């Protein structure tokens, strides 16, 4: 399935990055494909689509032409639905590259959406920018060895920073805790990987894990897990849970009278809609903050900060809140446009070389690709709160010791 949002509009510039010369210039067209989950369990990544595309390309359109060497170029973009699967993203990228013959590819939203398109871009020598997947999940193949990328450039947070971030958040828990930490890691790829990463880090701090083992997703009854946590006086619970499992666990924990000082939960806690569905039981949960208005930097092709981008999205979409994908999808366009302009041509090999030399400020922070074609971006520690004045759920950045450039917007509080 392909969702098309074609724009064949003139691009230009009242912005600093564009030329407003009155002289005639040769016209060209840049055709961009973007692979993103629109349907399936990862659809929250696509909630800001196509607004983010229209906002970025439309602002350029209104002025009259992106100057590329001695030309001014039109921009066409098409959205391809990954369907939240590896096979779906491979099919989407294949269609974009071979059938629709796009000039450049963008892909965002977990390994299911970024990795297959990355491999296809390498095979077909197509410059590609990917994001919203932890660096290591994109870099390493099934054999555990790093892949060699020449045409794909990736930006997101790294796993070592994530571990350091979570350990730091737990250590700054108000009043401290007794060292008893409960695990909620399911029997799926995320649960297995997260357990293998965090268990040794937590033990190195001298904390005592209470591990009920890997359980199946959709487990209807968490009573044995909750009883194990209660017996061992668990005060911090950490894990990686899909929204239905998280909601189920929290409801059963409340019914059993189990209330730890802290929940550090990833996966189901990144986006506002699932957290709204969980309701008050989700207030106070802590997780990784991989993008929010607290992030540093600004857009070269828009001039707005992270806060201004989020505000602009919410003003244009009443009743909807920004999602973390917004920043990375916006920045992907900036990275590509900047490389095209520095290359001075739309020729793919020249743009590939320009991508390798990227040093760009974006709403996700500075992007600078290393010799393995990735840039490590900032992260922080988020805590969900209900803001009565705004009458909505808000995500505060409560921890920034790993990346002080991510503004701290509130102090951490105990759960509930």
Task: Please describe what this structure looks like.
The chain is α/β, with parallel strands linked by helices and 416 residues long. The protein has helices at residues 51-61, 86-99, 111-124, 135-139, 159-171, 189-204, 223-231, 243-255, 272-278, 306-316, 325-343, 348-356, and strands spanning 2-3, 9-10, 26-36, 66-68, 71-81, 104-108, 128-131, 152-156, 180-184, 208-210, 236-241, 262-267, 286-289, 359-362, 365-368, 374-376, 380-387, 392-399. Strands 1, 2, 3, 4, 5, 6, 7, 8 and 16 form a nine-stranded mixed sheet that branches. Strands 10-9-11-12 form a four-stranded parallel sheet, sandwiched between helices. Strand 14 (359-362) and strand 15 (365-368) form a beta hairpin. Helix 2 runs parallel beside helix 3 (111-124). The longest helix has 19 residues, at 325-343. It is globular and about 70 Å long. The protein starts with a strand and ends in a 17-residue tail after the last strand.
**How far apart lie the N and C ends?**
43 Å
- Rg is 22 Å
Q: On the 0-100 scale, what is the average pLDDT?
A: 91
- How can the largest sheet be summarized? 9 strands, mixed
Compressed to H and E, one letter per element, the order equals EEEHEEHEHEHEHEHEHEHEHEHHHEEEEE
Low-confidence stretches: 1-24
- Percent range for β-strand residues: 15-25%
Range of helix content: 25-40%
């Amino acid at each position: 399935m392909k969702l098309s949002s074609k724009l064949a509009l003139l691009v230009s510039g009242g912005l600093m990055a564009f030329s407003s010369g009155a002289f005639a210039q040769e016209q060209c067209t840049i055709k961009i494909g973007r692979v993103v989950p629109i349907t399936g369990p990862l659809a929250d990544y696509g909630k800001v689509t196509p607004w983010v595309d229209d906002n970025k390309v439309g602002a350029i359109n209104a002025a009259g032409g992106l100057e590329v060497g001695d030309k001014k170029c039109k921009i066409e973009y098409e959205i391809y639905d990954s369907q939240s699967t590896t096979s779906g993203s491979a099919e989407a990228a294949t269609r974009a590259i071979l059938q629709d013959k796009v000039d450049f590819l963008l892909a965002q939203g977990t390994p299911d959406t970024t990795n297959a398109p990355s491999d296809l871009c390498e095979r077909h020598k197509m410059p590609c920018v990917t994001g919203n997947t932890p660096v290591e999940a994109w870099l390493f193949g099934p054999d555990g060895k790093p892949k060699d990328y020449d045409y794909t450039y990736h930006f997101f947070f790294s796993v070592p920073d994530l571990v350091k971030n979570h350990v730091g958040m737990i250590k700054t828990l108000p009043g401290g805790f007794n060292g008893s930490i409960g695990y909620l890691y399911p029997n799926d790829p995320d649960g297995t990987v997260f357990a293998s990463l965090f268990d040794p880090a937590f033990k190195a701090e001298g904390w005592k894990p209470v591990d009920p083992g890997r359980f199946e997703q959709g487990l209807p009854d968490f009573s044995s897990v909750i009883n194990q946590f209660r017996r061992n006086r668990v005060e911090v619970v950490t894990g990686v849970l899909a929204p239905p499992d998280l909601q189920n666990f929290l409801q059963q924990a409340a019914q059993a009278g189990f209330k730890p000082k802290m929940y550090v939960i990833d996966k189901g806690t990144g986006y506002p809609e699932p957290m709204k569905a969980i309701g008050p039981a989700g207030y106070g949960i802590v997780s990784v903050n991989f993008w929010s208005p607290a992030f540093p930097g600004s857009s070269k092709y828009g001039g707005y900060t992270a806060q201004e981008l989020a505000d602009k999205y919410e003003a244009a979409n009443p009743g909807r809140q920004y999602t973390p994908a917004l920043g990375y999808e916006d920045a992907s366009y900036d990275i590509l446009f900047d490389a095209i302009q520095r290359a001075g041509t739309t020729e793919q090999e020249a743009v590939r070389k320009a991508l390798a030399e990227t040093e760009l400020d974006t709403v996700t922070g500075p992007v600078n690709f290393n010799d393995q074609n990735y840039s490590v971006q900032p992260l922080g520690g988020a805590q969900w709160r209900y803001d009565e004045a705004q009458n909505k759920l808000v995500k505060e950045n409560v921890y920034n010791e790993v990346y002080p450039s991510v503004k701290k917007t509130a102090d951490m509080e105990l759960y509930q």
